[in-house]
């Protein structure tokens, strides 16, 4: 837990025996994790200021639960719980888990979050995702970042393989890959200039979380191409025309190969690169890097075509999942290089 403040101060056992997880959990989110999220978020929200003077905690949770029910196609939150979960909920008092308010909608949010089966991880993640986004929309600037940081700390402490980035739940995958590739790529794309590519990349992770691997690869491919188009437009480069008999296409209509050719031809080598290299070596390095990106795009297309269906059985699904993770990581790496070098 965070060391800041009374509620965040680590206990003796946490300081002496910090929890470390070699394998992160993705498809089980423990009740302990959810109780900690609700308790800490509930307390923190009451210290924030709403954007509108007409809002309060009650209206916040009313909007949150109304949105969730509409998205899930139900009229009662209990419709999203199993019979066993409802029976347990009816047996237990909400006081057992430390509810801080008797507001109806906050109570519903609490019950659904706590009593959902721990294996119903998609519902739980949807609730956390919607909670973070609602804070971003309803509270003043800076509030969402604090909530995301708090929830991420709870996730980390409990070995949960997800993280909130800019109000979106992201699958972490390998910890090092996530920290060094995925997170930086999303932070670069959070610049309003890259809003289109950012949305497509977030959609890719959303599809991945739903096991829609072909759609995830397709969205990653779109994010890759959108990033190149934005960079070309930002630098005011004209599209390379390999066929003088044909009119040069617009940036938006250009193929992926033309986009790479354009960047390769127009890019200036006046960046903060290792100056000990000879100019020819620099040019060769950039050409090699961009040719690698061309191959990456072809790989994405091949992966997308190869994942027409999910197949049956865990072995097939895990194979598709591994390929999709590779596609997402490869795309994120290329986006980081493009933006840092030319964007």
From TrEMBL:
Pfam families reported in the protein's UniProt record: AbiJ_NTD4 (PF18863), DUF7014 (PF22809)
Entries under InterPro entries matching the protein: AbiJ_NTD4, DUF7014
Sequence ranges assigned to domain DUF7014 in this UniProt record: 191-341
Record domain HEPN AbiJ-N-terminal: where: 10-184
Organism superkingdom: Bacteria
Protein name as annotated: Abortive infection protein-like C-terminal domain-containing protein
């Amino acid at each position: 837990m965070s060391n800041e403040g009374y509620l965040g101060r680590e206990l003796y056992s946490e300081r002496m025996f910090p929890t470390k997880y070699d394998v992160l959990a993705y498809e089980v989110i423990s009740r302990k994790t959810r109780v900690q999220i609700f308790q800490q978020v509930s307390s923190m929200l009451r210290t924030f200021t709403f954007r509108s003077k007409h809002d309060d905690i009650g209206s916040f949770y009313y909007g949150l639960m109304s949105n969730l029910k509409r998205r899930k196609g139900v009229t009662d939150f209990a419709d999203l719980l199993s019979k066993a979960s409802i029976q347990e909920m009816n047996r237990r008092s909400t006081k057992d888990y430390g509810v801080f308010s008797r507001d109806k909608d906050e109570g519903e949010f609490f019950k659904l979050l706590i009593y959902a089966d721990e294996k119903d991880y998609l519902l739980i993640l949807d609730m956390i995702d919607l909670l973070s986004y609602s804070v971003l929309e309803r509270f003043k600037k800076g509030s969402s970042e604090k909530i995301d940081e708090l929830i991420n700390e709870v996730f980390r402490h409990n070995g949960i393989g997800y993280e909130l980035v800019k109000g979106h739940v992201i699958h972490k995958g390998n910890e090092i890959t996530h920290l060094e590739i995925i997170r930086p790529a999303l932070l670069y794309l959070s610049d309003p200039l890259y809003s289109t590519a950012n949305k497509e990349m977030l959609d890719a992770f959303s599809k991945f979380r739903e096991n829609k691997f072909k759609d995830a690869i397709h969205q990653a491919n779109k994010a890759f191409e959108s990033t190149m188009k934005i960079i070309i437009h930002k630098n005011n480069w004209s599209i390379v025309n390999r066929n003088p008999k044909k009119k040069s296409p617009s940036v938006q209509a250009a193929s992926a190969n033309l986009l790479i050719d354009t960047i390769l031809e127009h890019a200036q080598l006046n960046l903060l690169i290792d100056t000990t290299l000879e100019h020819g070596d620099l040019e060769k390095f950039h050409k090699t890097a961009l040719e690698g990106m061309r191959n990456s795009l072809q790989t994405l297309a091949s992966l997308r075509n190869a994942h027409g269906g999910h197949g049956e059985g865990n072995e097939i699904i895990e194979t598709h999942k591994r390929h999709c993770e590779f596609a997402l990581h490869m795309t994120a790496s290329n986006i980081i290089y493009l933006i840092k070098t030319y964007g």
